[in-house]
Amino acid sequence: MKLASYLHQGIRSYGIPTPEGMIDLRAHLGHLFPDLKALLANNGLALASELAQLPADLPFDDVTFLPVIEQPGKILCVGMNYAEKRKEFDQHNPAPTLFVRFADSQTGHAAPVVKPHCSKEFDYEGELAVIIGRGGENIPRATALSHVAGYSCYMDGSARDWQHSWFTAGKNWPSTGAFGPWMTTSDEIPDPQSLGIRTWLNGVMVQQDNTSSMIHDVAELIEYISTFTHLSAGDVIITGSPGGVGKKRTPPLFMHPGDHIEVEIDKIGHLSNVIVAAARPQNALA
User: Fold this and answer.
1) DSSP state of 54
2) Taking Cα atoms as reference points, which of 55, 267, 52, 264 lies closest to residue 150?
3) 89 membership: H or E segment, kind and range
4) What would the pLDDT profile of 127-182 be if each residue is shown by its tens digit?
5) How big is the CA angle at 252 (ends 246 and 256), to the nearest 5 degrees?
6) What global pTM score does this model have?
7) Are 103 and 72 in contact (CB under 8 A)?
8) CA–CA separation, 233 and 221 (whole Å)
9) Which of 84-93, 154-163, 185-194, 213-222 has the lowest mean pLDDT?
10) C-beta of residue 52 within 8 angstroms of C-beta of residue 188
């Protein structure tokens, strides 16, 4: 089953995408679960799956996609987690490299991704996102995948010239991280380490790998992260980008207004966005 968050006639909703359109779960289950995060937190997946054969309520043209989880309690991002990426950046630290994104740095499928006004090095990173369905702490690796509700695509846009000695400033400009178009529930992806992942910039493939190339797999990441923070339903772990990023190309390849960026992951979907320029605020830093 696939699940998406979206706007319809200005109202936030969530539903099941089908070939014919969207089954509007807010219309059917909104009295129990106001949004997708609440559905996950209150064990609503089984109820949702009972509605998956209903006819579509809405054509896709009538919805505006939101980030799959619009307000995660935590967005935890993993850096340098593919072998080729580590080679590109000459990284050798054996521990997972972690940083955070804020919820307001996200945008949805087919929505504009906003190039920061003072970045000249806005880079692409296609990644697998993990959505937590059952919370916990000190979660052992052997049972970690049972805490996963599903998986999605993420385009972790990076202002490289604002990462400095760490990543936070380069990762949290508004609407720089695209998340969607939907999540695929974990029952359809029993092995998240066997998924092809591809990124295109203006129709040219710039990243291609498989999640089997991760240094730290999804179960290990959940175990590691849950040792220092409680994971809750709706939290998101972004698991790292393959090699091929623009920063390490010769010459460098960065995103500019008008560019089209796409991320596709097997069994999940195809995330597509266009880059736009941010409005330059008065008294902005150069």
Assistant:
1) S
2) 267
3) helix 83-89
4) 999 999 999 999 999 999 999 999 999 999 999 999 876 788 899 999 999 999 99
5) 70
6) 0.95
7) yes
8) 16
9) 84-93
10) no
- What are the strands, taking DSSP E only, across the chain? 2-8, 11-18, 21-24, 64-65, 75-79, 97-101, 106-107, 113-115, 122-123, 126-132, 148-156, 158-159, 177-185, 196-201, 204-210, 236-238, 260-265, 269-277
The per-residue pLDDT for range 170-197, each reduced to its tens digit, is: 999 999 999 999 999 999 999 999 999 9
Q: How far apart are CA 24 and CA 36, in angstroms?
A: 11
| Rounded-to-integer distance, Cα 123 and Cα 129, Å | 18
Instruction: State both tokens at 120.
Output: 């000249």
Distance of CA 190 to the CA centre of its chain: 19
Residues 6 or more apart whose Cβ sits within 8 Å of residue 17: 2, 3, 4, 23, 60, 181, 182
What region, left, alpha or beta, does residue 32 occupy, with left being phi > 0 and alpha being psi -120 to 50 degrees?
Answer: alpha
* 217, 195 contact by CB (below 8 A): no
